[in-house]
Write a structure and sequence with these properties.
Radius of gyration: 29 Å
Structural class: alpha+beta
Shape: rod-shaped
Number of helices: 1
Mean pLDDT: 80
Largest sheet: 4 strands, antiparallel
Low-confidence stretches: none
Strand order of the largest sheet: 3-2-1-4
Strand content: 25-35%
Distance between the termini: 71 Å
Length: 156
């Protein structure tokens, strides 16, 4: 014998959810989403700034490697030094300040600005206008590119 779902009031139990129950669940979900939205935006910005910091450090190290190896130019000559500089989110690697010939140009992802960087490495020893410097990356300034005589490293 098949058992029926009955109650004393109207003879049957209701199936599914009422409109009020659905409204309460949706409202609670919206409140949770609104509270977490700001946190998600900050974590995304943090990840973008971390990536930009690491990119800038790698381009500074790349420039120093060019100076240490004496990377030849298109004309076949070895320049006196290589320079890395920034303007907004653009990174420029140049050779010789006399000619200022552009070797490579990069743009940091998501338009992150890492301040004004201007570092030169002489050929062939990799020395030059390198002092122990620190450059902030982004608006949160949690990440910094630390540059010394031997390397550039991103740290928080």
């Amino acid at each position: 014998m098949k058992q029926e779902n009955k109650n004393e009031k109207n003879g049957f139990f209701p199936k599914g959810f009422t409109l009020l129950e659905l409204t309460v669940v949706i409202a609670a979900s919206m409140i949770i989403l609104a509270l977490s939205w700001d946190s998600l935006a900050k974590s995304r910005q943090d990840a973008n700034e971390s990536a930009a910091c690491n990119e800038l450090a790698s381009y500074i190290n790349k420039t120093r490697t060019y100076a240490l190896t004496g990377k030849a130019t298109d004309e076949g000559s070895v320049p006196d030094f290589f320079n890395v500089s920034t303007s907004g989110s653009d990174i420029f690697i140049k050779r010789d300040s006399k000619s200022g010939s552009l070797v490579e140009k990069y743009t940091l992802k998501n338009g992150i600005d890492c301040g004004n960087v201007d570092i030169s490495y002489s050929v062939p020893d990799g020395g030059g206008s390198v002092s122990n410097g620190t450059y902030d990356c982004g608006t949160l300034t949690k990440y910094k590119v630390k540059v010394d005589k031997f390397k550039a490293v991103c740290s928080s």
